[in-house]
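Dear colleague,

Thank you for sharing your sequence with our group. We've completed the structure prediction you requested, and as agreed, I am returning the results in plain text so they can be pasted directly into your records. Please verify that the sequence below matches your submission; if there's any discrepancy, let me know and we will rerun it promptly.
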Amino acid sequence: MDNGIQRVDGGWDIRSMRGTGIGELIIGGHLRLHTGSSRIEVHSPAELTTNHEVVPVHASARLNLDRLPQLLDQVVAEVHAADSGSLRVRFAHGWRLDVPVSSSVFGWIIALQGSYFIRSLPGGGVSMPGRQGLEGQPAPAPTS
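Please find the predicted structure tokens below.
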């Protein structure tokens, strides 16, 4: 697709974020990673996998926030939003940020060029603007 989003088996690859560095990192009630005019917001607990360990992180719970600034300037290698509602962000230096399905909140939101594109649903599944994302079921692929 010309917008840098590709439907793949089991989810969506957000290819427009590949090769872009994290230019801004905001930690408040949630974690926000900016890649140019696009962003990833993480609202629920996540795991940061480094070269040596797996660390639970959560902005609103103030859990291991000292690790997150190390993502600044890191280059995004892959962003995969699974139909199940989980999110995987892999960085070129080998680290990974995984956001599992949250039972009670929207776990994450991806906004491309400033507008919301896809988000996880509480309990599983994804939602996309103008499309029905059914809990535990894939959202329909966009048409060109």
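Summary note from our side: Residues 70 and 88 are 17 Å apart (CA to CA).

Kind regards,
the structure core
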